[in-house]
Specification:
This protein is mainly alpha-helical. The protein has one domain. 76% of the residues lie in helices and 0% in strands. Helix 2 packs antiparallel against helix 9.
């Protein structure tokens, strides 16, 4: 095993789990006060601007490789547009911690799509990781299962987010863009944000783009966090992890995100954190051990 890649991949997934997990209650605070399209457009373009600034600081080539504009636009639509629109509206119907659970069924879809379209080996170890991860997510979702069924719009939106992101992940891996992760992420945010601007003009502009009384301190803190750390660092870290790890392994490594999301939501928003959740966390930890503890070499391709 390439120890450098293994160590880097581990820390990328660890920090992603924490920062993306905490982002769920932050987004909940934000979308309760800001119109959903305004919130997403601001987040996406603050993230893109930050990543382009980092690329220029590092003197990276920001040009799009010849013939890749259409592919980048499609990747941006799948990874950015579908995800951000679906989660922004989904969070209006589903609690933040439970929304994270539905959205992070994404590793299961990636494992399936990766085997079908990338030729990734779906061995016994990864199958067990997927089984434990799925069981953990089901246990976490069980206390709110009846509520999710009663709110089919929220459930459908969060599933759309999961499947859209999974499709974008596999497509990005298959396309093998010859670009650094920083510029690849920045361009996807830029392209993926264009439909969001159209949505903002159509849906949010008539009712006003900013709350009449402004944001509360809680709203500002939630928006400030959601627009910076997850949009700049987490997006870069995800595409960097996707460069150095198989798509199924990288996505299974994200199973810890909903655990952090549920725990941080319970702490910050008062959402219930039942005893059953501990069994779910144990199952997800087993899934992570199986997914990331593989003894096979990790390919950088």
């Amino acid at each position: 095993m390439n120890r450098t890649l293994s160590r880097e991949g581990f820390w990328l997934l660890l920090t992603l789990a924490f920062f993306w997990g905490v982002n769920w209650p932050a987004m909940k605070f934000s979308v309760l006060e800001l119109p959903p399209w305004v919130f997403r457009v601001l987040c996406v373009y603050i993230g893109a601007a930050g990543l382009f600034a980092i690329a220029m600081r590092l003197r990276l080539d920001c040009r799009i490789p010849p013939g890749r504009i259409g592919q980048l636009a499609l990747a941006g639509f799948l990874n950015v547009t579908v995800w951000h629109v679906s989660t922004a509206y989904g969070l209006q119907h589903v609690e933040a911690g439970r929304a994270a659970l539905i959205a992070f069924t994404m590793p299961m879809w990636v494992s399936l799509f990766g085997a079908l379209f990338l030729g990734e080996v779906f061995d016994r170890r990864r199958a067990l990781a997927l089984a434990f991860g799925g069981a953990g997510l089901m246990l976490l979702a069980w206390p709110a299962f009846a509520g999710l069924i009663d709110r089919p719009i929220g459930l459908a939106l969060m599933l759309a987010a999961a499947i859209g992101w999974a499709t974008g992940t596999v497509y990005t891996k298959r396309a093998k863009f010859p670009m650094p992760a920083v510029t690849l992420t920045a361009w996807q945010l830029l392209f993926g944000g264009i439909p969001l601007i159209a949505g903002l003009l159509w849906f949010d502009l008539p009712g006003g783009l900013w709350p009449a009384g402004g944001l509360t301190l809680q709203g500002w803190l939630g928006f400030g966090y959601a627009a910076t750390v997850p949009m700049i660092y987490c997006h870069w870290a995800w595409f960097r992890a996707l460069e150095i790890l198989p798509a199924s392994m990288a996505s299974l490594g994200l199973l810890a995100v909903p655990v952090v999301g549920v725990a941080s939501s319970a702490w910050l928003t008062g959402e219930r954190f039942a005893a059953l959740d501990y069994a779910a966390m144990a199952a997800i930890l087993v899934a992570l051990f199986l997914a990331l503890g593989t003894s096979k070499p990790i390919s950088a391709g």
